Amino acid sequence: MQDAVLMSPVAFAHALKKPVSGDVNGMQTALSFADADVEATRSKTLSICDVSNLNRFGVKGPQAADWLKAAGIKLPETTNSWTSQENGSLVMRLGNTEFLLEDKPENQLAKTLSDTAVEQSGVHKVLRNDAAFIVSGELTPALFSEVCAIDLDNGSLEDNRLVMTVIAGVSATLLKQTLNGQSVYRIWCDGTFGPYLWKALLGIIEEQGGGPVGFNFYYNA
Amino acid sequence: MKLLQCPINGIRPLSEFTYGGEYRDMPDPDTCTDKEWAAYVHYRNGAPGLKKEWWYHGPSGTWFIAERDTMTDKVSRTYIAGQEEKQ
Question: Structure pTM?
């Protein structure tokens, strides 16, 4: 296996929990924090998982939508919404002319697009260095009511909508999806705020009886 | 909690927004006098009243115009610059 050349933006915040770490997509990542049954219990109560290592690709500009369509990608129709491709990659529409794609570990759509040279005017790649989290569990409404500036209980994330708001003082993108049959929340924020947001959310999660889960809980690395 | 309507993201708490200054029409720097240009660069109108202002929604990076009465702090409407008719 190739040595990891990157660390997750939240790797130092993980260290206190002494996770089992490994290399995923060239990034050192916490694969597990506890036994599988303990993590399964946490995920039902309240849990947080670091998935910053997933391949991501950002693009914006007046021709960005046409450029992505030409690459055979199914796009969300309206701003602040998302859709998933047949291979499971997420495509988020962050504005009229701005998109963010994220792969599952087993596919390479975002990576392929990142590696593609753009020679067309009106298409601009956006460098992404997100910290990305999965939050799950039946107590998530209690968590978000403490840290999120808007009310998420009113269906604001239904019908593949996404929300850009402030979570614990940090600008973040938030959506709700079904992963492995479980309804989970996805959070993206700037990587430099990642350790703070991880600690802030984990503090509340542990107060509520939950805890961290590793990358392997959702994906087989 | 004070709330403001973002034209893209809907009603959000004011803490998500940043004030970007009054919206003013820029004189053409090639044809205006130095006096007009200096007035545009240096002068601001602080008198209270209904004003057009730039506001920024941080989480989504959206700049927009808010029409706000600075006497009562009441926002009458918000819209994306150049899309006034659509809002």
Answer: 0.88
